[in-house]
Each structure stands twice: as structure tokens, then as C-alpha cells.
Amino acid sequence: MGRTVRDYGGLDPVLGRIGSLEVRLATTAPEIRRAQKLRFKVFYEEMSAIPQGAAVLSRRDVDEYDWICDHLLVLDHAAKAGPLRSAKPKVVGTYRLLRQDIAERNQGFYTRGEYDIAPLLKAHSSLRFLELGRSCVLEPYRNKRTVELLWHGIWTYVLHYKIDVMIGCASLEGTNPEDLALPLSFLHHYAAAPAEWQVGALPERFTRMDILPKETVDPKAALHALPPLIKGYLRLGATFGTGAVIDKQFGTTDVLVVLPVSAINPRYIDHFGPTANRHAA
Q1: Helices 144-160 and 228-236 sit at what angle, rounded to 10 degrees?
Q2: Which whole-number Å values give the CA distances from 82 to 67, 85, 86, 112, in the listed order?
Q3: pLDDT at residue 183 above 80?
Q4: Is 70 exceeded by the pLDDT of residue 83?
Q5: How far is CA 185 from CA 102, 225, 256, 263, in A?
Q6: What average pLDDT does the segment 161-184 reach?
Q7: Phi, psi angle pair for 4, to nearest 5°
Q8: What is the rounded radius of gyration, in angstroms, for the C-alpha atoms of the chain?
Q9: Could you tell me where the DSSP H helices lie in the chain?
Q10: Cα–Cα distances in angstroms (integers) from residue 5 to residues 24, 29, 218, in the given order
Q11: Which pLDDT tens digit goes with each residue over 42-55?
């Protein structure tokens, strides 16, 4: 049950710590299942995703990408055992990571089901891409420490694998674009990716984001309406693709994040350390 299914070579799976919290890469099938259980709890029980097939019985969010991706976990070593929970550290946050070389040997990036990323990959064929996805944090842990540890883990991973560009879908809750007119219009008018990094939603899934004219968008109010994850991407220096995609199963409206490592705000690199040494284990 606990046999190793992920081997990261020279990269220690334990990437960092803050107090009782630890960020690490999953190395065994049970650890991956614990990430899937957390995703089910957040996406299906707390939010409005609709479970399908085996997910209803297993209480896990599972898809065909899980077994080719790496899984970043935040564990709380101080979490108390309960009547239905053992004393082992509690998984409180997760991110899913898919490197380009792994994607190309398998079914490609998850993102390609929503966005036409092929021209982007071709235009930057000398660069290494990393797809980020399935990010979630347990509600009591949605604070600066947990998010900081997740990003410390990602930064350590990016440095180790010499990643040049991060991409991935980020979600706004809800499937009615009119209800999301302010944040979507803000991302379109104020945070669009430059031409060399631009990606459009697949034509059959394209939902326009420029619902409001630029002059009617209040940037401060729009930022307040954005999910914390997307605000975090913006602070790092990310820009966004053209067109949103409605994901009815997850009850979300997705946007495409594009973050070249060269565009990351230098103060964040200084904060985590150019060798990711700030929260090193």
C-alpha cells in the first residue's frame, strides 16, 4: 500500500516547513489518494462540483491525469486525531503538477481540453512548460502560511526541473458569465497576456470575457471580486488568455493563467530565495 510510485531523483520530497506545516511531494499511492480526498471535500462538498461515476462511492476527485502528475501536499503535523481519523499528519492543501516532457509522453496537458495551447508550445519550443492545476486548501487553513508553503514548494520544484513557463486553468465559482462580468472584464482589459504568450479558448468552448467596456471597470472592486488564487497569480506577474471556459461539472468559469518564470515579480524571488531556501526543510 505504501510502496513508492514517485521518485524525484535528487530532489528530496520534503520541500519545506513553517511551524507544524510541511510541504512535500507525494511519493506513494496512499498519499495521492489523500490529495484526491481533499479535492473531493473542497470541490464537491464545499463547492458545487457534481460527482460522476466512481467518485460518488470513493469520495475522491479522480481523473486520468492523476497518475502521470506529481502531487504537492501541505500536511499539518499538529492536527489532532479524531474518532474517524488516525494520528498521521492531515493533508490540508494540494496542487497538481505536470511537466511538459511527461505530458508529451502521455495524453498531453489537461489544459488542451479547454484552450488551444499548441501554438504557444510551438512558438516557445525551446522552453520547459509546467502545468499547475487542481489547487485547493481546506477552509480553516486558507491563510498566508499555507499558501506561502504551496508556493515555496512550487518554486523549489520549478528550480529543480529548470522550468521556464507555468500555465494552467484557474477557476471563478459560478457558470453564468454575467454574474462574473466584473472580474472577467478586468482580466481581459487589465491582465491579458502579451501577444507572444497569448492563448485562446477552444472555439467550441469560448466564452467572451469583455462583457463590460474597460471604462466601466473599477479595478479595485474587480480585484476584490477575484478568488484569492487568481489574485495571487496576478501579484506574481501572471497574465491571462483570451476567452473563458464554462466547466459545468465543477460549477466554475475557467481562465487560462500564463506565467513565464522571467516575468515573476523579483520581490517574490527575493522572498522565497533564489535557491528556494526561505522555508527549506
Answers
A1: 50
A2: 30, 5, 7, 41
A3: yes
A4: no
A5: 34, 11, 14, 22
A6: 97
A7: -70, 125
A8: 18
A9: 29-40, 54-58, 100-105, 118-123, 144-160, 181-190, 219-225, 228-236, 266-272
A10: 14, 6, 48
A11: 999 999 888 877 77
Cell readout for 258 is: 500564463
From residue 267, how far is each of 23, 159, 212, 236 by CA, in Å?
22, 16, 32, 9
How many CA atoms, within 13 angstroms, populate the side-chain half-sphere of residue 76? 16
Give which of 177, 176, 184 is closest to 242, Cα–Cα: 184
Alpha-carbon distance of 193 to 28, in angstroms, equals 37
Q: How far is CA 94 from the centre of its chain?
A: 9
Pairing of strands 129-137, 70-76: unpaired
Strands (E), 1-50: 14-18, 21-25
**Cα separation of 40 and 266, whole Å?**
35
pTM value surpassing 0.90: yes
| Closest to 70 measured CA to CA, from 170, 190, 163 | 163
Residue whose cell numbers read 521518485: 7
Which pLDDT tens digit goes with each residue over 248-275? 999 999 999 999 999 999 999 998 988 8
Cell of 29: 499511492
